[in-house]
Amino acid sequence: MIYPELVKINEELKTRGGQVVKFNCNKDNKELGKQLGIKVAPTFHLYRGREKLGEMTGAKVDKLREMIEANL
Q: Taken in order 52, 54, 57, 58, is the CA torsion positive or negative?
């Protein structure tokens, strides 16, 4: 349901040097999901390089956009 909005956000971010990366916490990636502290889906982490700038859970597109804008 949120995927089409993530595609739009990704297109907008491309012009600003950013990108949205999708990561599935399935059985193949379970350990990495634990290391990242992901407990619910969707979870969004915002990074610049290796520095984590923000995190949120839930399919709240407006809140996600706010978090991105506050950190660009």
A: negative
In a domain, 17, yes or no: no
Coil, strand or helix at 43: strand
The residues of the chain scoring below 70 in pLDDT are: none
CATH number, residue 65:
3.40.30.10
| Contact (Cβ atoms closer than 8 angstroms) between residue 47 and residue 53 | yes
Q: Is the pTM of this model over 0.90?
A: no
22: three-class secondary structure by DSSP:
coil
Q: How many domains does the chain divide into?
A: 1
**DSSP 8-state code for residue 2:** -
Q: How many CB atoms lie within 10 A of CB 51?
A: 7
